């Protein structure tokens, strides 16, 4: 029932926003429609008290947006998948800043909780890697996802302010990150050569 | 008369086996054979409850970390005992099997979308250090280290098999995973037997060494389950 109602809120978000009203009106779209919207008590028991219900709705929308990333072409690229996710944001751009602020706010007025932002970006990076079929293991698993999360996070922030240039910004960021990746690999290779030379010199001195 | 026929038959079979090039049908061949990479059992992950998913993730993470550590233990041992005529080729053989295990574990990690352990580099360094130190102490000490590690790993795989009994067997990847873990458990126990055959029990302070190494492995397993 809860999942069904959440599913039915998706088309209503554009008109009513991420609010308890949206959750209440979802009852109208049920297969056996309710004559009235859900009561406040029903919303609180199903989705949480006060702002928690809005947070539940926002998290559900974010999960659904992640699932929509895989609906694109047959040979997906990282750029394509991240752009598809940015595109999914477009209908609701004006609602998103408040939604993200709500996720980040904690009970005390002096602290902000960075964890939802990190989880959000990392989750999208992980989904993108999975769709494209990136097969890294070990530390490179973390490095790849961290860099993609940073790229996506920056692109999404840019999109909230300037939606038309967001895709070019994403391209520029991806190109920069691949240049950094190449540079790091080259430094590693060079350091490896230096290390091997040092070991050979050490061995040839007759110590070992 | 019948004995001689049986003898001839077994001779012919041995002759055929020596020259056959067909790979044995082991479960992990599903992962090592490149022609099978599109199969459902190898490329998709089942729908699981959150609890089951968390347990599967922890299990595969620990297994992968264990195989990394085992690879580097043998690498460390070989770095010291490379020139030994008996121990060198033996350790090399066991290392080659562990390389195959790691390859399969990496594929399992990608298939089931498991986060690898943060302690990957620590596992590498600690494994190499353990292998090198025990090899410095002597051939028998190296075998004793192998014996202790393989005992803990064998028991661990056995516990995992019991845990995996409640996973849904409808999805083809689950019975394959159980078979692969069984195969790896048997391989590790074979390494254990090899180590004992090569006089691991004669190592100096064998009981103390086994306790320390075994205890260290158990701590590592608990850490990798979480991190």
Give me the secondary-structure topology.
The complex is a heterodimer of chains A (208) and B (227).
Chain A: H1 2-9, H2 13-16, H3 20-25, H4 40-47, H5 51-68, H6 78-89, H7 96-104, H8 115-132, H9 139-161, H10 166-204
Helix pairs in contact in A: 4-5, 5-7, 6-8, 6-10, 8-9, 9-10
Chain B: H1 2-19, H2 29-32, H3 40-43, H4 50-81, H5 87-111, H6 120-137, H7 139-163, H8 173-197, H9 206-226
Please give a structural write-up:
- The complex is a heterodimer of chains A (208) and B (227).
- By secondary structure, chain A is mainly α.
- Chain A folds into 2 domains: 2-50, no CATH class; 70-204, no CATH class.
- Helix content of chain A is 70%, strand content 0%.
- Chain A has helices at residues 2-9, 13-16, 20-25, 40-47, 51-68, 78-89, 96-104, 115-132, 139-161, 166-204.
- In chain A, helix 8 (115-132) packs across helix 9.
- Chain A starts with a helix and ends with a helix.
- Chain B is mainly alpha-helical and 227 residues long.
- In chain B, helix 4 runs antiparallel to helix 7 and helix 6 runs antiparallel to helix 7 (139-163).
- The relative contact order of chain B is 0.15.
- The model of chain B has no long low-confidence stretch (mean pLDDT 88).
- Classes of the chains: A mainly alpha (208), B mainly alpha (227).
- Chain A: Pathway: Cofactor biosynthesis; ubiquinone biosynthesis.
- Chain A: One of its GO terms (molecular function) is lipid binding.
């Amino acid at each position: 029932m809860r999942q069904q109602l959440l599913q039915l809120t998706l088309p209503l978000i554009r008109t009513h926003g991420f609010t308890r009203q949206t959750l209440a009106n979802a009852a109208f779209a049920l297969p056996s429609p309710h004559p009235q919207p859900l009561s406040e008590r029903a919303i609180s028991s199903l989705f949480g008290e006060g702002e928690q219900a809005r947070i539940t709705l926002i998290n559900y929308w974010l999960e659904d947006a992640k699932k929509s990333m895989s609906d694109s072409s047959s040979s997906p690229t990282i750029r394509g998948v991240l752009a598809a996710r940015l595109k999914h944001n477009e209908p609701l751009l004006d609602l998103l800043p408040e939604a993200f602020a709500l996720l980040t706010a904690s009970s005390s007025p002096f602290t902000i909780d960075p964890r939802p932002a990190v989880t959000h970006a990392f989750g999208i990076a992980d989904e993108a890697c999975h769709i494209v079929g990136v097969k890294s293991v070990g530390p490179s698993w973390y490095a790849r996802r961290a860099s993609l999360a940073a790229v996506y996070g920056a692109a999404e922030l840019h999109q909230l302010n300037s939606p038309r240039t967001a895709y070019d910004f994403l391209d520029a960021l991806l190109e920069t990150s691949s240049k950094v990746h190449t540079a790091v690999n080259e430094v590693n290779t060079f350091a490896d050569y230096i290390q091997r030379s040092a070991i050979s010199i050490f061995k040839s001195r007759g110590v070992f | 008369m019948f004995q001689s026929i049986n003898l001839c038959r077994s001779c012919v079979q041995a002759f055929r086996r020596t020259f056959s090039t067909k790979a044995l049908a082991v479960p992990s061949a599903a992962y090592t054979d490149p022609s099978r990479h599109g199969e459902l059992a190898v490329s998709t992950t089942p729908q699981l409850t959150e609890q089951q998913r968390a347990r599967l993730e922890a299990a595969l993470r620990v297994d992968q970390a264990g195989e990394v550590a085992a690879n580097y233990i043998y690498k460390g041992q070989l770095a010291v005992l490379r020139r030994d005529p008996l121990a060198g080729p033996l350790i090399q053989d066991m290392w080659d099997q562990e390389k195959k295990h790691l390859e399969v574990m990496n594929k399992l990690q990608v298939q089931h979308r498991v986060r690898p352990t943060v302690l990957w580099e620590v596992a590498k360094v600690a494994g190499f250090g353990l292998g090198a130190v025990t090899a410095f102490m002597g051939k028998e000490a190296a075998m004793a280290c192998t014996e202790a590690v393989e005992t803990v790993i064998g028991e661990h795989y056995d516990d995992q098999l019991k845990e995996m009994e409640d996973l849904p067997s409808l999805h083809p990847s689950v019975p394959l995973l159980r078979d692969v873990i069984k195969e790896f458990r048997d391989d590790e126990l074979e390494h254990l037997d090899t180590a004992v055959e090569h006089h691991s029990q004669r190592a100096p302070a064998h009981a103390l060494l086994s306790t320390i190494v075994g205890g260290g492995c158990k701590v590592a397993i608990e850490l990798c389950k979480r991190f």
